[in-house]
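Name: Major facilitator superfamily (MFS) profile domain-containing protein
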Amino acid sequence: MTAGAMIGAVISGRMTDFIGRRLTLWILDIFYIVGWLAIIFAEGAWLLDLGRLSLGIGFGLTCYVGPAYLAEIIPKDIRGLLMSISQSMTGYGASLTFVIGSFVTWRSLAIIGCIPSLLLLLALFFIPESPRWLDYIENQRLQQNSDDNVLNLFRRKYLHIVIVGVGLMVVQASGGLYGFMFYMSEIFDSAGISSTLGFILVAVLQASATGQCLGCLLTGLSYFLQELDWWKEASPILALIGVLVYMGSYAFGMGGIPWIVVSEIFPINVKGSAGTLCNLVSSFCSWVVSYTFNYSFSWSPAGTFFIYAGICGFGVVFIAKLVPETKGRTLEEIHASLTRIMQ
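Structure predicted for Major facilitator superfamily (MFS) profile domain-containing protein:
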């Protein structure tokens, strides 16, 4: 899936700029439907892999075009609120899937997963195209935009926002999310906790956005304490609390806000290339985490989560020092202020 997301990331910016936000939403939804259908009717591993790849491509496109479209159509006074609600649906959807998946077969779960994609297909008939994209296309009809190139992003006037966007993606994706998501059963089982109970608690408990680093620390500490005889009984509870804090805080914090910021800080003349770069970095880091987690967890469960905690801790400092506040400002005001910083 993360490999498919990298493919979707590579084509997301150019596709969205060339054919528009609305048509890109149509295409990504087709990838979702094809992916779920491939999994539903799979009789062997190759069709399951094909389905996951297709879902990944759709997800890679979604990560860029979803926040970009919303940022361009929502008024500034409610932009943060509505985009946060939209992004939080990812966390809620994953939590709901954990609960349902504890009681049904994977094929039944795939059928259920196809339902939102079909609903989106119907909803796309009723949404408008982004007015900012329409204006951009009209202004660029007779001229080539020389800035819309990945290499041009590293010019001085864009360097600060590129560092902010790419840095947020590195922190978000490298902080262990896909380790928790893809291997949550193994984490619960190794800590002596019922996976079904753990999934249900993850679904119903939401923590504050500042708890992501704490979640990794608590989970790592629980495995470290398993080596101490007098702490062995408490360590499963600590591991459960750590996972709950991490997943809950991620849904409200790093799960959606970095994508919101990235959709806001880049001017529309470079948004396609910048979105592709940030999306690709996010997908690549997600792939690294999902691929290496099993090996690092076998090496040292405690060490694995301490590493993730360190990355999340770095993210706190990075955000405090470099990430601008965008609340209550139009996209044009945000772009003008950030461009002046580098001039």
